[in-house]
Amino acid sequence: MYGLIGKMTAVEGQRDVLSAILLESLGKMPGCLSYIVAHDPADDNAIWITEVWTDEAAHRASLQVPEVKAAIHRGLPLVVTFSDAQVTTPIGGVGLG
Amino acid sequence: MYGLIGKMTAVEGQRDVLSAILLESLGKMPGCLSYIVAHDPADDNAIWITEVWTDEAAHRASLQVPEVKAAIHRGLPLVVTFSDAQVTTPIGGVGLG
Question: Which CATH number characterizes residue A19's domain?
């Protein structure tokens, strides 16, 4: 498995709009075992995203899905920064697929 | 929902043992929607844990489940440090329950 943890900081006041965009194409990503969008209770503009994929290739392929590309196109202008990026190797747990 | 992201650093050489302990009582935690144990590919001793609970009370209650208490008792001596702790407010996604 291939995992990602990261934080996005949205343009002031745009976190809810950006979160909705992140959530809308989730059903269309083959090999996606977990993709959780969370707000940061200590920062009104921050979103934490934790992802688990069958492998890195599935993650890369998802970025080419038309609905996902369209979502990225709409979401990117609402992002100020990406930070705290961490690649992981998930080994098990609850909520995988 | 209530979420946690955090990193544990295991005693040198004990990551696999600690990971197995973390995974073994997962089925016994009411209100646990996601609990993913992952290795850090850049640090042989580090484990990333990402969790989603129905609410904070469910997380607190899990620490009192006998199997979980026993696992904590066995696992703690294998932990050198906890770091990068982040509380989140999950709002949706794939792999929740």
Answer: 3.30.70.100
Structural domain that includes position B62: 2-88
Label residues B52-65 b or e (16+ Cβ within 10 Å = b): bbeeeebbeebeee
Residues A38-64 have pLDDT tens digits of 999 999 999 999 999 999 999 999 999
- Is residue B96 in a domain? no
Give the number of domains in chain B: 1
Looking at the complex, report in whole angstroms how far the Cα of residue A43 sits from the nearest Cα belonging to chain B.
10
Mutation site for B-interface testing, chosen from A32, A36, A83 by largest number of B Cβ within 10 Å? A36
Which ipTM value was assigned to this complex?
Answer: 0.95
pLDDT digits (tens, 9 = 90+) for B49-86: 999 999 999 999 999 999 999 999 999 999 999 999 99
Adjacent-strand bridge partners of A35: A51, B94
